[in-house]
Amino acid sequence: MAKPEQHPSESPKLLSRQRILAAACEIFSRKSYASVGLREIAARAGVDVAYAHRSFGSKLGLFTEAFRSAIRSDIAVLLECDDLAETMAEIFLARSEASPGELGTGLSILLHSVGDPDAIEALRGVATTEFLEPLRKRMDSGGQDSIVLSGALLAGLGITLQVLDFEALEMPDREAFKRRVVSILRGIAAGETA
Predict the structure, then answer these.
(1) Is 2 contained in some domain?
(2) What CA–CA distance (Å, rounded) separates 180 from 121?
(3) 79-114: per-residue pLDDT in tens?
(4) pTM surpassing 0.85?
(5) Angle at the Cα of 173 (from 170 to 178), degrees rounded to 5?
(6) Which of 45, 101, 120, 153 could serve as a FRET partner for 31 with CA atoms 20 to 30 Å apart?
(7) Cα angle at 134 between 129 and 140, to 5 degrees?
(8) Tell me, what DSSP letter sits at residue 163?
(9) CA-to-CA distance for 100 and 110, rounded, in angstroms?
């Protein structure tokens, strides 16, 4: 009897690689780059550490792919949306309304690895190729500076709302808060901020 044909996305190697990547995203979003080892990630994924190393080349390679994976879906939404400022604000608000401390995997990975030079270089590379360059093409004016400023604004607001939990920024009227954020993002894109 012939074996049923296996869908390419269900190959054991691909499934193992996806498990490794998912485990890395989870662990790097909770712990610093320096405190995480490939053995811990491999154990969480249920694979041999040598296989995890072969699949991603190194811990830094896996970290880089984990961050890329964590931001990929949000970037895809931003690249396809009709209104960039509105969509950026909506993604931000959705993240800030999550349970306390849940900033989103990408931002959590970034925050947990701020002190490590290797991790920062990897994050900068991914942010440039996956965020800055594609979104700069979407901006009406202002270019890369506008994207950097918009991203910094949203990241800062997310940290303020989730980590610092400032009562002054609580939003009893979500839509009014969103309109203010959208207005600021549009001002940045139009080069109206000094």
Answers:
(1) no
(2) 33
(3) 888 888 898 888 877 766 665 445 578 888 888 898
(4) no
(5) 85
(6) 153
(7) 140
(8) I
(9) 17
